[in-house]
């Protein structure tokens, strides 16, 4: 199955997350809104001065070189005041423009001394100058953030500015199950025939970095009985029941791939034999109504499958419409001699070239390797059946863009 078709199916199967949480805005950065945010107030709430200077009526400037006493002084935080025709006010950035005034002249454009101001003529000033009108950033009751949008530092600032201290976010609990008798945790002394688990830590970090901090993680041996027990425990205990299950390893067709058999007795799995490299064994299904993603065991396949397949689906479940990452097309410095049968995601680095950025490929693209994924800053896509020559352009996704979304 081509990657594009797999993505279509994944997105079609994505159901909105039921798990939502009302949390303090300040704790929500990086997460996905479960409901839209509306402005409680106009922002700014009142017309205010954009500069330090003098507030007045534009019509009063008809006489050039006019010198007037300062009738009022309004600083940021002062209550709104009123000016009568012919009066001027000393005003500071952020202060409410007095009722009756319609223009603010920058202090650099007038002469202010001893409580008086010498004003410029109308030709150098425009009516309405230097006033930030009420509601220019947001209007009261207007939607400022849509459901599904991810909270960036800027959007947290915008939400605070409209008077919201709490937001409702998607809060799915995500269970990461690593499998394999060969694996041991990094705390232990290395044992013969064993390797350290890298998928668990990598996947947990990928989830956290892409806005899903609520991760449960457990390692399961290649033992159908123990796998079954663990799964039953997660599915029956309401304190632990996840909203999504992601596994690594154990879903291929090997004799020791028991996860598959156990999961199939709890739900329905689709084995697509995806035309993706790395990541062919990627599996999707439902386990007691929960979405299940079975990632391959190889660490770089976990990275690619998570970023290209799992993350867009999770984002759709959060209510996002545009979840497909947008590539940029960049020339490459390398060649790929043999046309592949699977769409290949190469670990590449984007470096400055003569005229534009160019892509360099790590010499070792083994799906079992992570050092090349650390060296790389993104993925370049080689379409099925294509050979690549230096100077050809490939679609490139930076890891930063993929994770930020
Ligand atoms: P599997 O799909 O279980 O056959 O695993 C494929 C390859 O990935 C094997 O070489 C495994 O040892 C390796 N692998 C599986 N799980 C992990 C893991 N959590 N960390 C590192 N390597 C793993
Ligand atoms: Mg295994």
Automatic annotation (TrEMBL):
Keywords noted in UniProt: Magnesium, Metal-binding, Molybdenum, Molybdenum cofactor biosynthesis, Transferase
Iron among keywords: no
The protein's Enzyme Commission number: 2.10.1.1
Catalytic reaction(s) noted: adenylyl-molybdopterin + molybdate = Mo-molybdopterin + AMP + H(+)
CDD domains: MoeA (cd00887)
MoaB/Mog domain sequence ranges: 175-316
Swiss-Prot/TrEMBL GO biological process terms: Mo-molybdopterin cofactor biosynthetic process
InterPro entries: MoaB/Mog-like_dom_sf (IPR036425), MoaB/Mog_dom (IPR001453), MoCF_biosynth_CS (IPR008284), MoeA-like (IPR038987), MoeA_C_domain_IV (IPR005111), MoeA_C_domain_IV_sf (IPR036688), MoeA_linker/N (IPR005110), MoeA_linker/N_sf (IPR036135)
Protein name as annotated: Molybdopterin molybdenumtransferase
Organism: Alcanivorax sediminis
